[in-house]
What we know:
Strand 1 (28-32) and strand 2 form a beta hairpin. The protein has helices at 3-11, 13-22, 61-69, 85-98, 110-125, 142-145, 151-154, 173-180, 205-216, 264-271, 288-322, 348-353, 355-376, 401-416, 421-437, and strands at residues 28-32, 35-38, 43-46, 103-107, 129-133, 164-167, 184-189, 219-223, 243-246, 258-262, 329-335, 338-343, 379-380, 382-384, 387-393. By secondary structure, it is of the alpha/beta class. Helix 3 (61-69) runs antiparallel to helix 11, helix 4 (85-98) runs parallel beside helix 11 and helix 8 runs parallel beside helix 9 (205-216). The chain has two domains: 3-59 and 305-437, Aspartate Aminotransferase, domain 1, CATH 3.90.1150; 61-301, 3-Layer(aba) Sandwich (Aspartate Aminotransferase, domain 2). Pyridoxal-5'-phosphate (PLP) binds at residues 51, 109-111, 114, 137-139, 190, 194-195, 223, 225-226, 247. The site of pyridoxal-5'-phosphate (PLP) has 15 residues, from helix 5.
Amino acid sequence: MDVAGAWAQHLNPAFVRLLGVFGYGRVWTRADDVWMWDDQGRRYLDALAAFGAASVGHNHPRLVARVRGFFDDQPLGLCHTGPTRHAAALATDLAARLAPLTVSLLASGGAEAVEAAVKLAVAATGRSGLLYTTNGYHGTSVGTLALMGAPRMRAPFEALLADAVAVPYGEIGPVRDALASRRFAAFVVEPVQAEGGVVAPPDGWLADVAALCRKAGTLFVLDEIQSGLGRVGTFVDDVVPDVRVLGKALGGGLVPVSVAVTTPAWHAKAYGTMERFDLHSSTYGGGALGCVIATEALAILDGLTPTVAARGERLREGLRAALAGHPFVKDVRGRGLLVGVELGPASGLASRLAPGLVELLSKQVLGQWLAVRLLEAGVVAQPATLAWNVLRLEPPLTIADPEIDRIIAAVATVLNEVRSVPTLLADVTARMGEQAWRGGTFR
Ligand SMILES: Cc1ncc(COP(=O)(O)O)c(C=O)c1O
C-alpha cells in the first residue's frame, strides 16, 4: 500500500508536504522497545517516544500479554449503566497513589482530560475565569486552545473562551496579582513545560502558586500529561494540587487513556447531586481495555521511575560535555528524561559575525534541520512544538546507558560538523535546497 500517498490524499496533505520539504520522508512500519523501523528496513533509536506516550517503550511485553489475555474472561468493553470492575480497579489504584486526590474523571485524550479539569473547576467554584501560562501547551481542542499563548495555534479559532488570562511561567508577582481578583476558577499549569521548549520553573514556584491558589479559592490544576508518570524522574511532583491531569504514558503508547484526578470535596461541589452527576461524561472514558492497560502501565512505570534521574543526568551531562563551547548551542536543560537542547547564537566568533542570521535560522529551521540530520543518523527526535529552536529529547524510560550514549554521539557528531556560520549555512541550504530541487517530494 502507498501509505504516504494515502496520508497525502485522505489524512493530512500539508503534513505530508512538510515532511517532504524538510526531508523527514519515512514510512514507519514497526517498533520494539526503544527501536523503530521504516519500510526500507532501516532501524532508528527512538528519542521521542511518541511525544512521551511510549514511556514504557514500544510494545512492552507485559502490555502485549495483557492485550492478548484481555478477552479470556469475556470482558464488558463499555458500559454506562452501572459500575464496572476495570474502571474500579484503575481508579482505586490512582487514588492510592495520588491521595488526597481520590476521585477520577476518566477520559481518552489529553485535551479531553484538561477540559474535564476546567469544567470541574468552573462547576465547583461558579467562577468563569481561567488562568494559564504563556508558552504552556494543554492540547488543541477548543477549550484547551483557550489556555495556549501561541498565536499561530489559536488565531484561526478565535474567539475562544473569553475569560482566559495568561501569566508568565515561573514568575510569582503576576500570579499573585491575577489571583487577588478572586475571579479565577482554575490555574492550569505544567510542572515542566514540554512543548514550550523544555522549561522548568524556579524551585519553589509551584508550591508558592499552589498556596496562592488555595488562598484565592482557585483550583490549582497540574497538567502532567507529558511530564508526569516518571518522565521527569519522580512519580509525582511533591506539590499537592487540586487536580492532577494524566495522559499519554498512562495508555502505554497503545490505547487512549487520560484522567483528571481530584479531591472528593471538589468533585462533590461540582457533580455531587443527582441533578449534576452526569454534567460531565465520556463514552470511552473508563472503557475496560484502556483501564486494564493503564493499570499495568502504572505498575511498569513504578519499576522504571527510579532509574530516570540518573539516565537523564547522563544524557544532559554527556551532551554538555560534547557540545561545550559550541557557538550555536545556547543551553542543555531539562528534568529526568525530558531534555532540551536550545539552539541559537551562543558565544564565540562564529555567532558574533552574524548573530541576527543565526537567531533567525534557529527560530525557523535549525531545530528541524537538526532533527532531520539525526534521522539520517538513525535517531528519531523532534523540536518542541512551540519552540522550534529547542530540540527535545524524550526517549522511552526503558532506555539503557549505551543507547543514551548513542543519542549523545549522534547529536554531537551532527552539531560538531557545523561550528561556523558558513559551514552551518552551507549544510542547511544544501539539504533544504536538495529537497526543494526534488520538488519537496516525500522521498
Ligand atoms: C502538557 C500537555 N497537555 C495536554 C496535551 C494534549 O494531549 P492530547 O494530544 O492527548 O490531547 C499535551 C500533548 O502534547 C501535552 O503535552
